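Hi C.,

You asked whether I'd gotten around to modeling the 272-residue construct. I have! Everything is below, sequence then structure, no commentary in between.
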Amino acid sequence: METARAPVPTEAAAATTGTLVESCEPSAMSPWNGGLLVGDNEVGTKLFAFDLDLSPRAPLPLPVDVQDIEALATWGSTLVVVGSHSRNKEGKPRPGRERILLLGDEARLLPLDLAACPGCAAARSLAPNEGGFNIEGALVIGGALVLGLRGPLAAGKAQLLSVDLTSGAVTGVVTADLGGEAFRELVPWKAGFLAVSGPVGDPPPGQAPGHHLWWFPALGAPPERLAADLPTSTEAIYPLSPSEVLYLVDGDGKAGACATPGTHGRLRVTLP
């Protein structure tokens, strides 16, 4: 099912920012035990934990190394940790990224079966900047895991995959017109979800396009672009209230060495 493109508003929203402690390259965020869990795409053995004001808590260790964590979701009391499933920048396979960890009473890995999305399967051999298969968002809707793809696009539209949480098989594909952009984050909100969009590939040097915030009333419904632009490299959001969204921006570093810390901010925006 394809969705219609929504009008683009022009109103800007004010934001305040600060430096994120602990995690250098925050890439995913989810509510957990009254606070927040944050995934870092350079740290696959634990999740960073924070209070809602981003005061650090003790991290949550992971029983399996999920490399390049790009999405977190909750399914009842189960935490879903999603690796990007992408190749590296040179197009070389990275099997440690091809993991979806379900962490509940027991931990298990969910294999992803892309047979129902031939274009996705074909893109698995490509590097991310060449339109390769790349997951960057996740949430659970109606008992199915929904994955938001950064790549590939399908006829210029972003893709959402519905995945069976028992078998890992893709059971449905929905496309959304995000103005040529792709998904960077998915977050439940009321009966639908919020999404962050951004470019499929990395922007050329000197260009820093912003990321955009969208509202989906339901899976497959036409999206509405909200009157708020997020900073470039926004990797995760969490709605603190109907008028304020917490966001995390990716830094630059490797495990144990942080060149540029990640940042956080609070964006004033009217949510549906």
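If it helps when you're writing up: The CA atoms of residues 215 and 224 lie 5 Å apart.

Thanks,
B.
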